[in-house]
Amino acid sequence: VNLSYKLLSQEILTVLNKKAIDVHQLGILGALETHRLEKQLPTGLLVLDHSLYLDTEDYELEFEVNTYQQGLLAFQDILEQFEIQHQPPLNKVQRFFERKHFLKSQTE
Length: 108
Description:
Layout: H1 10-18, E1 32-41, E2 44-53, E3 56-64, H2 68-81, H3 92-107
Antiparallel strand pairs: 1-2, 2-3
């Protein structure tokens, strides 16, 4: 789908122009919406992201800390407490494009 450059803010248009990107060649590939819940804990900020894109809905649990080692131990405790298996995820954009590629392959 072609994207009308009129939808872009002047700030974005300025950046694209500085990078010599032809805004008339841009297109919308899809939409990704994220809802976030945050809970401050003594050891860091616990974050739950709920993402919606294409025909997919997923969740990602993150733990934001100042010190990696302390954060890792605290996060492992949280996962263990709720019997959640740790799975290093792709980031949201990677998951979006992986799903988009899969859906496209199903229609070919």
